[in-house]
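User: Hi! I'm working on a homework problem where we have to compare a predicted structure to a textbook description. Could you give me the structure for the chain below?
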Amino acid sequence: MLDIDEMSSKEIHELLHKVGYGHLGCIHEGKPYVMPMYYYLENSDIYLFTTVGMKTHDIDANPEICLQVEEINGTLHWRSVIVNGRASRLTEQSDIDRAMHWIKECNPTLSPAINRTWTDAEGRSEAIAIYRIHQSEISGRTTDGISSR
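Assistant: Happy to help. Predicted structure tokens:
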């Protein structure tokens, strides 16, 4: 059997800082829903960047979320972090500007999506939403391929 160990707070923080994307779990129409999501870690705050749509509707309706982040180097070597918390949408322009600066600096590949605007067939335009996760619980597990057998 593969040994699975608890990650230290330092290891959890390092993994969250290194990876930058994960899977966000929230509730959609009363059912669990998981989607890929980029995030940015600043100190102990996690920021989510998205455009207004189903995700923002679901998070605004029920801000209790779960973010799962992993690093897999084979079936015997992996690390995984779970962050449970409450997401709140940034509304102050200074907070939004600061978060956008961090997001663009951390992940320049998002710049085309950030800078692009569009209007769909129904006349709706793209709008950006940024959330801060207020962590209530965080845990991490890791394995280094060692078996206790």
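For your comparison, note the following. The first strand starts at residue 5 and ends at 6. The two ends are 6 Å apart (CA to CA). Good luck with the assignment!
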